[in-house]
Amino acid sequence: MIMSSFINFPKRLKPVSWYFAIRCGSSSTLAPGRIYSQRHLFEVKKTQMKANNPEKYALASDFLAHRADRPKDYKPDTSADRSITPSPQEKRLLVLTGMYKRESDIPEFISEVRIAMMKERLNFMVSLCFLVTLVIAFLTTIKTMYRTRTIAVGDS
Predict the structure, then answer these.
(1) Backbone angles phi, psi at 95, to 5 degrees
(2) What is the pLDDT confidence band of residue 7, given thresholds at 50, 70 and 90?
(3) Coiled-coil stretches, from where to where (predicted)?
(4) DSSP-assigned letter for residue 4
């Protein structure tokens, strides 16, 4: 396969040989002069972040140095997370997951973080239902297995 470019194949087999040369060729080798250390990449990213977004920080120490003159209970004026209007389905799921008692209790705008929490709870509930169903199916199979064994062997 390595020397597929030097072997003379019939025309109908040539696409197959090129396919294997492409599939088996090494794409993980780096081009010369393109080897970067992780530290170098981190420094580049840090510089880009400071140039593009001066209010965002690459390191926690940068952030703490920026707000060293502010009190500890400092909170920004604007909310960090976006608010969205939940759809009727999301409202039902918010009630189902226990985040709110009734649909009428849900405010008009909800934080995206709240929606993400609802989805995490929903994933947990679905996983739990799946595991319970799996255990019930396993126990039912075991019960059926013992019942059919006593029928086949008979009570002795």
Answers:
(1) -70, -45
(2) low
(3) none
(4) T
Task: Please name the residue that has the structure tokens 């997370």.
Answer: 81
Please tell me what DSSP assigns to residue 34: -
In this predicted model, which residue has the larger pLDDT, 99 or 136? 136
**Half-sphere exposure of residue 38, counting CA atoms within 13 Å on the CB side?**
0
Find out whether 118 and 93 touch, Cβ atoms under 8 Å: yes
* Strands 83-84 vs 110-111: parallel, antiparallel or unpaired: antiparallel
Rounded to 5 degrees, φ, ψ at 76 are -65, 155
Rounded distance between C-alpha atoms, residue 118 and residue 96, angstroms: 9
Instruction: Output DSSP code: residue 3.
Output: T
Neighbours of 121 (CB within 10 A): 16
As a whole number, mean pLDDT of residues 125-153 equals 91
Mean pLDDT (whole number) for 16-44 = 55
pTM greater than 0.70 (yes/no): no
